[in-house]
Specification:
This protein has about 325 residues and is α/β, with parallel strands linked by helices. The protein has helices at about 5-10, 40-55, 75-80, 115-120, 125-130, 175-185, 195-200, 210-215, 245-250, 250-285, 295-315, 320-325, and strands at about 25-30, 60-65, 90, 140-150, 150-155, 170, 185-190, 205-210, 225-230, 235-240, 290. The chain folds into two domains: about 5-105 and about 115-150 and about 235-285, Bacterial extracellular solute-binding protein, family 7 (D-Maltodextrin-Binding Protein, domain 2); about 150-230 and about 285-325, Bacterial extracellular solute-binding protein, family 7 (D-Maltodextrin-Binding Protein, domain 2, 3-Layer(aba) Sandwich), CATH 3.40.190. The termini are close together.
């Protein structure tokens, strides 16, 4: 699998403007997300998707992108989508717990070796089927978008699992992530992505877990003691839409949007890893301490969090977990 250079990421990072003035007769597609518009894998992918739709489908469809929770945050966007107030979004996979238990597989700690293992699983029959796991709830998943592997940070060094004991971590609303923090002797507090920096700065929470791109673009590292490169989980997104809206589109237009989305997904997912590595460099250049884990230290974290797998094995399903375990990485 080919990965592109950081220089190319930077060169293509500023795709054209995402907003569009829809003409009469065009299908208006509002895309809501919570991250930075540029310099972040999701923001960059949304920009390119809008550019492609607004150019290739001019006269038939137009897309407007609303970044940084300017339309809805990830906690509100799915109910809004079911009400017809937004057409597309790309929430983190942890945000779908109210609609399906199967996507919880992505929250299991230390399941995937790296982002290539994640992608291999997502393109397996078992992984691809997850996109339709919420159709009965009125939602259809279209494509998986990458962000990257998660790292821990706190207001004190985190080198061994015991270092997390007693800390309050911001987490996404996920029963698996809550159980993960309990296994560490910590407390997990769900809160919107847009509120995390202020909560860390004010000391309302002590710690968080996120990707290099999220950490850098939201400046989390500037209000933490350092970052532990744990690679203990992933943050990926599912581009999702309302089943009613999607199935109600003209078949030809629906196929064209799906093809453009597929092409954008392949292109931008190639950049997510490189962009994460670039943002890791930026975190270090800002003066933050990045702590690596030795093999023994990593094994201690794996052992501490192993009970989480057993706790959710019944909900997620042994077959699905086994399919994810079979995926091989190798960046």
């Amino acid at each position: 699998m080919r990965w592109y250079s950081i220089g190319l990421v930077l060169a293509l990072g500023a795709a054209g403007g995402a907003a569009a003035q829809c003409d009469p007769g065009e299908e208006r597609i509002r895309f809501s997300h919570v991250t930075a518009e540029t310099g972040h894998p999701k923001g960059e992918a949304a920009l390119l998707l809008a550019q492609r739709i607004n150019e290739d489908l001019d006269g038939r469809a137009c897309m407007e992108v609303y970044p940084r929770s300017s339309l809805f945050n990830d906690d509100d966007v799915l109910p809004a989508m079911l009400r017809g107030e937004v057409e597309m979004a790309a929430p983190s996979l942890s945000k779908f717990g109210a609609y399906t238990s199967q996507l919880q597989v992505f929250d299991l700690p230390f399941l995937f070796e790296d982002i290539l293992a994640v992608e291999e699983f997502q393109y397996s029959p078992e992984g691809a089927a997850l996109k339709l796991s919420m159709e009965g709830e009125g939602l259809i998943g279209l494509e998986f978008w990458h962000n990257g592997m998660k790292q821990f940070s706190a207001n004190r060094p985190l080198q061994m699992p015991g270092d997390a004991e007693g800390l309050v971590f911001r987490i996404q609303p996920s029963a698996v992530l809550d159980a993960q923090m309990q296994a560490l002797g910590a407390e997990g507090v769900p809160m919107p992505f847009s509120a995390v920096y202020d909560a860390l700065e004010a000391g309302e929470v002590d710690a968080q877990e996120n990707t290099w791109s999220n950490i850098y673009t939201q400046s989390f590292h500037t209000v933490q003691d350092g970052v532990t490169e744990s690679n203990h989980g992933i943050i990926d997104y599912l581009v999702v839409t309302s089943a009613d809206w999607w199935n109600g589109l003209d078949a030809g237009l629906r196929d064209d949007i799906a093809q453009i989305l597929l092409e954008v997904t392949h292109e931008r997912n190639r950049f997510a890893f490189e962009l994460g590595e670039l943002n890791k460099i930026r975190v270090r250049q800002d003066g933050s301490t990045i702590r690596a884990l030795s093999e023994e230290e990593r094994a201690a974290w794996v052992a501490a969090l192993a009970p989480v797998w057993d706790q959710f094995r019944g909900e997620i399903g042994d077959d699905l977990i086994a399919a994810a375990e079979r995926a091989e990485g190798g960046i």
